[in-house]
Amino acid sequence: PYLLTEHNTWLQNRLSPKFLHTNSTSHTWPFSAIAELIDNAYDPDVSAKRFWIDKTVVKDEVCLSFMDNGNGLDHETMHKMLSFGYSDKIALNGLEPIGIYGNGFKSGSMRLGKDAIVFSKSKTVSCIGMLSQTYLEMIDAKQIIVLCHLFSLTISLLSVNEDQEASLRDILQYSLFKSQVELLAEIDAISSSTAKTGTRIIIWNLRRTSTGSTEFDFGTDRYDIRIPSEVYEELSDPSQPLNRATSYVPESVVSLRAYCSILYLKPRMQVMVRGQKVKSQLIAKSLAYIRKDYYKPMFLDQQNGFHS
Ligand SMILES: Nc1ncnc2c1ncn2[C@@H]1O[C@H](COP(=O)(O)OP(=O)(O)O)[C@@H](O)[C@H]1O
Ligand SMILES: [Mg+2]
After folding, report:
1. How far does Cα 259 stand from its chain's mean position?
2. Nearest Cα residue to 148 out of 124, 123, 112, 175
3. Of 62, 93, 189, 241, which one's alpha carbon is 20 to 30 angstroms from that of 234?
4. Nearest residue (CA) to ligand 1, atom 12
5. Residue of the nearest CA to atom 5 in ligand 1?
6. Which domains does the chain have, with CATH numbers?
């Protein structure tokens, strides 16, 4: 593991901040970016029972917030989550993880907005991390810098090392939260759930369309997050021009609630969109005709450990 860590540090130190944007373009659709964050809570190492997706306004800035009541994470895992080149996920109790490449959080969060802050509460510690393109631009960073800060469970600060003090200072200066009290209030929001542990992610500087509005429509349906038609047209494959008269757009493409309802074949986590439960659609049960086809990639035997 030490060798790996050295390699990862090497990799991280050579990544330009611009890579955060480049890397995010793997998500052509905003909902797949959101799915990365949902998957992380659903994965067996976190095994959240609930996942909340909301729009929230912090200091007049429209943000997306994601919260789960899973196991939370400690300082080291937080650091890995915000950095590149790590994933130590393994199957737990026979449940295969979805994430195995260690890139979901970075690509997903940075697809949705330029800046993300993560609050987490595990059984033993609370910590805060920030991955912010705005911050990296403002300090003219030449490589990606990840900020992490650890709180002890009491309100008083656990005075850790200088790095952490510097992280806290920069988080307060460059995030939307300007005091420790404000930061702690977000951590408290996690513990108000029954599990007392979990993770809360706030993304701001949301991506905007060419006309300057956010790519999400929060107004049409108070209990949904929708993709407006102009965004739909802008993002759709230009080689397949839309024929408005005939083209039918499935709800799951433009409604986050509909998208979440079909996300998992085996739902084991309740997703809440803007305070309302998402009703899972068991796809297999809603189809008129079902045929099962088992597919096994030919190269599976040679490449042990590859999960499709
Ligand atoms: N909601 C969460 N709660 C606890 N840990 C998380 C959460 N999201 C991400 N993590 C941790 O961060 C790591 C990196 O996540 P990600 O970038 O999506 O890569 P991957 O899922 O492929 O490991 C995960 O392996 C997990 O340890
Ligand atoms: Mg993941």
Report:
1. 16
2. 175
3. 62
4. 81
5. 73
6. 2-206 (3.30.565)
